[in-house]
Every structure is written in structure tokens, then in C-alpha cells.
Specification:
The protein is an all-alpha fold. The protein has one domain. The protein has six helices and no strands. Helix 1 packs across helix 5. The longest helix is centred in the N-terminal third of the chain and has 16 residues.
Length: 92
């Protein structure tokens, strides 16, 4: 996956996450940031990587997002690997 595609998918994930009140609140709390800061930094690869980390942290989130975005769930992990910080850890 190319950087541009990964960023586009991560922006879609951000919009999805913003629509999930509990998950978005948890994301804001975990990152110690505000919605205003996120809007200002929406093109920052580090922020986008943290969005994908959040989505990937829960099976139900990644599956719901992938379904909404019309992509295989594996593409979310692939996008994360392309963004800042490199590969997603293998949690199994």
C-alpha cells in the first residue's frame, strides 16, 4: 500500500472514529488531545497512525470500520504499517 492510500484510509478511519462516541472519547483520553487539535493535525502521519492504532485495538472497531469503508480488515493493518512508526506489533 502506498503512503497516500494509507493516509486516505486513516482519514476515513478518523471520520468513522469520530462517529463512535465512546471510542472517540477513549481515543481523546488516551492521546491526551482535543477534537480541535485533531482537526488541526488531521494530515499529520503520526496522528493518523494513532487513529489506526485505536481502530486496530478492538476487533469490533476494525471490523465495523472495514465494513463501512468497503475494505478488507487486513488493509487497515497494512495502512498502519505504511504510516509513521512502521509495522503493527503482532499481538498473537
Amino acid at each position: 500500500m502506498r503512503q497516500e492510500s494509507a493516509q486516505t484510509l486513516a482519514l476515513q478511519a478518523l471520520a468513522f472514529l469520530a462517529g463512535q462516541e465512546a471510542a472517540f472519547g477513549a481515543f481523546l483520553a488516551a492521546t491526551g488531545t482535543s477534537a480541535a487539535t485533531i482537526r488541526a493535525r488531521a494530515d499529520d502521519p503520526d496522528l493518523l497512525a494513532s487513529v489506526l492504532d485505536c481502530v486496530l485495538s478492538e476487533d469490533n472497531l476494525v471490523l465495523a470500520f472495514a465494513r463501512e469503508a468497503g475494505v478488507p480488515p487486513e488493509d487497515v493493518a497494512r495502512a498502519r504499517a505504511v504510516l509513521a512508526g512502521g509495522e503493527v506489533p503482532n499481538w498473537t
